[in-house]
Design goal:
This protein is mainly alpha-helical and 206 residues long. The chain is 44% helix and 8% strand. Strands 1-2 form a two-stranded antiparallel sheet. The chain has a two-stranded antiparallel sheet with strand order 3-4.
Length: 206
């Protein structure tokens, strides 16, 4: 898989990484949430070259994560502000910060404290279930194909083979030859079609 192909992957993680996965981009986003908005301020804080900074900011603007807003007319200059799409990255940024606080802070402790304005308390970010409110852990969750899935390739290892076949059947039956669909559909027809399909697990083992 090439870097410039990530946005075409049938995977939300890969598509997100295609936008924010670059190390400079993550640090730019960190500063955006620290209310840094102007090109010169980004450059001074990050120590980044102007061409690299300009490229990363353009990418974020093109992806509607940031928007350029004029703050000076003569000469015309812009500042970069988070859109709603950009603000929705806050949990991701905070999760990275929290991981760094826990595992990389060193003996002196975390370099920044985050305070919740509504309660006035310093906090740690917590990911909870949207339905029951309980904290989420990897041992208490599982995944299954969603309505936008087109391939079983990103399902967990050990996924039930019959379930994978049913998934392929429902998503790929529209691609079956017209002459096959005209007559009553037999299990053998479906099996033959699925085994020949490039997304079938057997095809990936070759």
């Amino acid at each position: 898989m090439r870097w410039n192909e990530l946005s075409d992957e049938n995977c939300s993680m890969a598509r997100t990484v295609s936008v924010i996965g670059d190390r400079w981009t993550l640090l730019i986003l960190r500063d955006c949430f620290l209310r840094v908005r102007r090109f010169e301020d980004f450059q001074e804080r990050l120590g980044i070259t102007r061409p690299i900074l300009a490229s990363r900011l353009k990418k974020l603007v093109d992806e509607f994560v940031l928007v350029k807003v004029p703050y000076q007319r003569r000469p015309l200059r812009y500042e970069y502000r988070l859109t709603q799409k950009g603000l929705d990255l806050y949990p991701i940024v905070m999760a990275i910060v929290h991981w760094g606080d826990v595992h990389m802070a060193g003996k002196k402790g975390r370099p920044l404290l985050h305070t919740h304005d509504l309660c006035g308390k310093d906090f740690d970010p917590v990911m909870v279930c949207s339905e029951c409110g309980e904290p989420l852990t990897p041992r208490q969750t599982h995944v299954h194909p969603g309505p936008g899935a087109t391939s079983p390739r990103h399902l967990p290892l050990g996924t039930d083979a019959p379930a994978t076949r049913r998934f392929l059947a429902f998503t790929q039956i529209k691609d079956m030859p017209e002459q096959t669909i005209r007559r009553p559909l037999r299990v053998a027809d479906l099996d033959d079609h699925l085994r020949a399909h490039p997304m079938h697990p057997r095809q990936h083992q070759r």
